[in-house]
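Researcher: Predict the fold of Rab-GAP TBC domain-containing protein.
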Amino acid sequence: MDMEKVALAATSTSTSDEATVPPEETAVVPEDQTLARDPIAQRKIDEIESACDRRDIKGLRRLAESAGGFLSDQVRRRAWPILLGVSTDEAAGLPIDKEGGDEKGRPWQDLPPHKDEDQVDLDVKRSFVYYPQDQSEAQLERNRAELFSLIVQVLRRHPYLGYFQGYHDVCQVFLLVLGLEASTSSVSRLSVLRIRDFMLPTLAASIAQLRLLPDIIRQASPKLWHHLEGVEPFYALSGTLTMFAHNIERYQDIARLFDVLLAREPAFSLYLFAQILIDRQDEILEIEEPDILHVILGKVPANMDLDQLIIDSVSLFNRHPPDKLPAWRSISSASVLKTARDVDHSDEQTMASGRLYFEQQAKEIRWDEMKDRALKALWRYRRPARTMGVTIAVGLVAFYLRRNPAILNHVFALFSR
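Model: Structure tokens for Rab-GAP TBC domain-containing protein follow.
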């Protein structure tokens, strides 16, 4: 059956023998029973609940960084939306994205299809591989239908966003923790305000983020940096694109990691990846073959001490903040790395501003691509005897094109004859 039809059936049917129960109505799971008997854990839960009541982002960040993070999904259902700046109305299930969405009160099913829905369908069919492990195939199919609904709803309400492979891994975690209804507003704000660089028309902004990784490693471990010199940091693409959801196979581990990733600014995922490499330095230094090295660098160890990893990554971030790294200058002012740094005031970020930043960055990417094409055309037709003159001319042309972008069309026409 087509995934869209399954999704429509799943979202329109209120009762079913295999229907998943909304998280708010689930019975207390063994994890929560264990925590309830642990006085130290219960004190921490009370502290998290109090921080949620006050919408105290700094307090939530401190608790997310401490041992165990938010401890349980029941607590995460309150904390995650607050960290993403979801309003009280949105959390209550009222119409989402009032200031930036294209829904205008219409059901998402009635909105025009998004151009990437076929790819969404393919990826969703491959979802829920590692977790949950205690569900029947019928329950997993319903999960997939709800995941498809979640992703397509966000994309249809924000059609300028482009889907990327791995986005379903991120949404899968939100769906399991928050449930379908509560996930929509959180995933919408995450997409537009925290990971929109990955949803641009090209990977240019994503690659620009990766360029920070060698800078972090160089500051923290010159020996490791020297060993990796010349190796493009594309090995970290999967981990950073998906907030490690594609790399981590245990549900409790990825949920715990999301606690801190949502509590910190977007650049923090790069510091987590850098710290993982630093922790594996001895293993990495023994590998000389580039192909093998690339594969090893992209792997995330299965049995990491996440609490220690987070402590070390926070320390690494504090010692070498992103704005002190050389590659920071190349990051667009419209990138989430710069516009979403102040997590403490995430509720002040609007979806409308996120869309404007998206359009600004998309325009910058188009300009860079056009400029590169024009300059390559000029360089290709230079005369060897006038190399120095052409070099100077190319620089002048680049400056002129910046101020007069329309001239690019004439350049392309000239050299295509």
